[in-house]
Amino acid sequence: MGKAVCIIGSGNWGSAIAKIVGHNVRDRRELFDPLVRMYVYEEMVDGEKLTEVINTRHENVKYLPGVQLPDNVVAVPNLLEASKDGDIYIFVLPHQFVADICATMKGNIKKDSIAVSLIKGVSITEGGIKLISDVITEELGIHCSAMMGANLAGEVAKEQFCESTIGSTNEENGQMLKRLFETPYFHCMIVNDTPTVEICGALKNVVGIGAGIVDGMNYGDNTKAAVIRLGLMEMIKFAELFSPGSKVSTFFESCGIADLVATCHGGRNRMLGESVVKSSKTVKELEKELLHGQSFQGPLVAREIYHILETKHMLEQFPMFMAIHKICEREMDPSQFVSCLRNHPEHM
Amino acid sequence: MGKAVCIIGSGNWGSAIAKIVGHNVRDRRELFDPLVRMYVYEEMVDGEKLTEVINTRHENVKYLPGVQLPDNVVAVPNLLEASKDGDIYIFVLPHQFVADICATMKGNIKKDSIAVSLIKGVSITEGGIKLISDVITEELGIHCSAMMGANLAGEVAKEQFCESTIGSTNEENGQMLKRLFETPYFHCMIVNDTPTVEICGALKNVVGIGAGIVDGMNYGDNTKAAVIRLGLMEMIKFAELFSPGSKVSTFFESCGIADLVATCHGGRNRMLGESVVKSSKTVKELEKELLHGQSFQGPLVAREIYHILETKHMLEQFPMFMAIHKICEREMDPSQFVSCLRNHPEHM
User: What region holds the Glycerol-3-phosphate dehydrogenase NAD-dependent C-terminal domain (chains A, B) (predicted)?
Assistant: First the structure.
């Protein structure tokens, strides 16, 4: 029997990955069950249930309109039903929902199933951070890998060539996930450094807001390149401090510099940064206006790491992260952003 | 007596750096002679000599129009006169002219003068590469540093915040150059790894063409991020092979990832790559049409490294560099470019 795949989440990225996974399981029946269940948070779209639209028109009209999903991807509105008897769980939903989802799944899944997190974020503990993959492992008692990379969903859905990084501490699971996700246009590389992969995925969205701020201020490519570089340096330092054993080489993978560059040019958090300069609305208001129900992950992560860094008296080592949080909270004017970079600790 | 500074070259970047240097030497008279001589290759612009225009209107109307140069920067059309009695030589001209310039200066300069190369390129020898800074040192018998970074000239001239990297094997010279170049908007960091700084400056223009090719093919930010990442990997491998002792950490400086990102988004070699897709003209024709007398450095470097790699039977390790050279030579169709990346050695 092939392994049954369950996708938990159905936003922009969840739908794009459903397209890949749906095709791959059908092409690789020796490995995978050809039916993919996708847990969809039910909502009404123009008078119809979103799950019914997906299951009849095979399109997520709300979050990835215009993209045909394979018809072996079945939308299921009930989490327990969707996740029952799964062998591989793909977590792809905003990180604030992970705890509740896991609480529902706990005790209702196979003990030898595995998971992979595509979630951009980290959890906060008193002492520091906890990875989403670790949260999933602790809650569900199953091994969890992570996959991150320069993978803007709309472009992946259009089958434009890109790379992605699978972080897995279990080689067999890493190889299985590569077979699940890889296509000629979606190239997966495996590293055994899951923490750095996830930290990159969380923090790049914070830097992306910074890139948007300098775009909004009409700075050019030099300033933006400095923001990207200094942001990368803060990401590396954060990983060193809060995830000892993190490898600098992982930052050279797609989840590192490549995703950072893509996020700083095409991501939604970049758009948020630009909007924060050009309007005086709050982030919440901008989210409603710009994302129609999706959420900006960058400000949430920025707030969380601000509080960790404040508690540990380390804020001055991370002037960019600090400034971005304060600008998102409207406690600092965006025009101050570049000044915060002039005496960066990297320059000492 | 303050040190006399001579700028050799007066193109787009030479003129932007002349603005910085002119202001800095005036503000730091305890260190520098407040008069800066700039060697300008004489040409006629709308019936006037370029040197006369610069010396009366204080603007390089041909290569950096609209930017006021400080009036203590004096354009000199005669190289020997410009370089006589200099203490610090800033080389900022296309790399194909370095040998002739040095041959003229040889024997006519102070023995304890120093140089810094802002030239993007490397020289080719039978066994491999020779750095421009080494060419200058060998020809003139003086120490030579290098400065490279995410420094698109037009944006520097507008005083937008950016960073730059000074590579110097002599700490005192590095510090002196930092005082010559640094301003609140132009931040200089010193590394003692001159070879990697120069190799980055040369090779980033090749990758920039690749970024332009995917832009021209209407790929999005994911594919471009993959081009940037794989290009960086080829740059690192090239440095390892041809400049043993090269430090990976230098690629995290402005001369590394930051300059690469800026070049792949705003540089003239990116523009060339896009034009190569959208027209069927040769690189020479595009150069005339787009640059009005300046030159594209990327295709020259691409050709040179292609020949080294071919001689050493290493082409298959550098599929991106190889493809970019062939596309520039019109020996490969740009539509083949992305296919060349699908089985990249980095993916093995």
Answer: 193-338
